Amino acid sequence: MITYLEAIRAAQSKILADDPRAYIYGQDVGEFGGAFKATKNLAKEFPGRVIDAPISEDAMIGSAIGAAIEGLRPIIEIQYADFSTPGFNQIVNHAATLFWRTQVKCPITVRLPSGGTAGSGPFHSQSMEGVYAQYPGMVILTPATVEDAYSMLLEAVAIDDPVLFCEHKYLYYHLKAEGLPTEALPVGKARIARQGRDVTVVTYSAMVHECLAAAEELVAEGYQVEIVDLRSIKPIDTDTVLASVARTGRLLAVGEAWPWGGVTAEIVARVASEGFTLLDAPPRRLNAKNTPIPFHPNLWGTHRPTAPTIARALRELLRV
Amino acid sequence: MLDTAPVTHPATVREPFAQAYRWMLLARLLEEKLANLYRGGKINGGVFLGKGQEALSASLGMSLRKGDIFAPLIRDQAGRLAFGEEVIEAVRTYLGSRLGPMRGREGNVHRGRPQDGYYAMISHLGAMISVVCGGLMARRLKGETGAVGATCIGDGGTSTGSFHEALNLAAIEKLPLVLVIANNQFAYSTPNHREFACRDLVDKAIGYGIEGHNVDATDLDACLRVVGNAVERARSGHGPQMIVANLLRLAGHGEHDDAGYIPQELKDSPVGRDCLKLAECALLERGWMSAAELETLREETLRQIEETVATVQREPAPDPDQENWCALSNESLDDLFVAR
Ligand SMILES: Cc1ncc(C[n+]2csc(CCOP(=O)(O)OP(=O)(O)O)c2C)c(N)n1
User: Fold this and answer.
1) Does B167 sit in the ligand 1 pocket, CB within 6 Å?
2) Which domains does chain A have, with CATH numbers?
3) What is the ipTM, given to two decimal places?
4) Band of pLDDT at residue B338, cut at 50, 70 and 90
5) Does ligand 1 come within 6 angstroms of the Cβ of A121?
6) Which of A10, A136, B247, B275 is the most buried (most CB within 10 A)?
7) Global pTM?
8) CATH architecture of the domain covering B14-339
9) Is the pLDDT confidence value at A318 over 50?
10) ∠ CA(B203), CA(B71), CA(B189), 5° rounding?
11) Is A295 exposed, middle or buried (0-12, 13-18, 19+ CB in 10 A)?
12) pLDDT at A165 exceeding the cut of 70
């Protein structure tokens, strides 16, 4: 059995072995193996290519851009996605604009350990994919499975543009698979995580699993829920979403990020404008609450969508 | 000015020393209790200890007075207590009590009472320095004089852009800022030589045009003297003061971390000495406290902590149904559509 976290480590090991242009730069990633052990033993296996960074996110991203200009393929590990904000300027204003301004490619991969876990509070829990997605010039991946964590990270480093790899901390140890995949859907293709005829749930990352649990709850009530795992939130596979809504006539978009704008709003907007006639009911969204992410598990468990709240939203939607 | 700032603080006498020791002991025993609760699965999230940093932190907290600004960081339990935090505030925050200052919204070290000059840190390292600067600028704009603002950071935190921007700002404005850098040799697992390449962090003070001081933070006498002096110099118009304190983190980064990367030689070297034990020896040697008095103090302190924890464990956890899910003070401006 291999965990989501081990898959990320294995992918990085393969990248370093296969691509001499790749290197890893991040706080505590060297001998220590990273705050979450995503680079365990890699410094030993690849001497000089897994490098400890100072606590300087702006300079970490900036240096990656420089290395990319010189032909390398940096992987930057930000210790928590929340700490990418000091590097925000270099990400959105420099990495994301470089090719458009100069025709020089910027193939950097920024790993963002994202999302909430119990007791982590407002600064170790954030889901920032929607914020970054607002800016043109980046590919944004949000793997929900062990297989995708592996294959999409391999693909991320191969992509010639800046990639934000939003790996979910809640899935690190929780999620296990039999082994590593040998083939995968390409980036930009969504996956039907569960087939159903009554309602489409579009989601990504850890929320896929909450939605799967909610779908199981509804089986007893006679409902078949279809779940689309976006896999990549930029680009979004609009075709797969619309095809699913065409089958079910109902849409719920679920995300762990905050409710103003973001991925779920984008999904609803696309379905409303391109698939209005497919809908039998108004499309719905379910997101985290509109406050910072609370520390106490009682509050956190209510702040983010969970299987029971998703099931409740689905029941309401199915009754329309 | 490096190491040469005139020492205006009086030589240590019994009372500041013994009082500092009491704060240090309270902080140490409180954190040991919190670590136990963490190991027993009673605390959600992380627990981060200030073990080894108590002399420095207590000296800072004691050098400040009501009306000053204090923005402590991760390892400043002793300073928080000396600045006026009640034990119960710390325990309530760690245990997530609904009655605590953070009401379960925030945990562990992310606590404070900004309205009382006790600022509540965010996690992002370096972020508190400029905020303290702003507090001091406000005092000046309001015509208030005499206040000092103090904040702390680790060796690793000096690598942030925020650190640089804030110190430069403080220097330009000649603010009464005291920045304490606890150089505990490691930033999580990262040793000093991977965080900075200057001979001594205190040299950075020259670059900013501010006064800098070194102190051996295992030595309570030295901490009281150097920190006290820096606070006085800031208060008396000598501009920002940087203190670089040398010590070793005598714990993991957090309680999840066994700190196996800290070499034994370093632990056995002078920097690895335990400031609390040294202070205890000094109290005995100088005849300022007897062994029996020390024992009684320890027992009373432990009892106080146990009672507080027992009280807090009976307090209600936050209730999501009673929680006000609004992040604005002006609730009428909340976006009701997304607040549903
Ligand atoms: C901007 C930012 N990046 C990363 C982190 C994650 N982080 C938390 S503590 C820490 C190490 C801090 O080391 P140091 O400043 O030396 O303080 P110490 O823990 O040794 O007291 C890191 C990297 C953070 N809090 N803020």
Assistant:
1) no
2) 2-177 (3.40.50.970), 191-318 (3.40.50.920)
3) 0.93
4) confident
5) no
6) B275
7) 0.95
8) 3-Layer(aba) Sandwich (3.40)
9) yes
10) 60
11) buried
12) yes
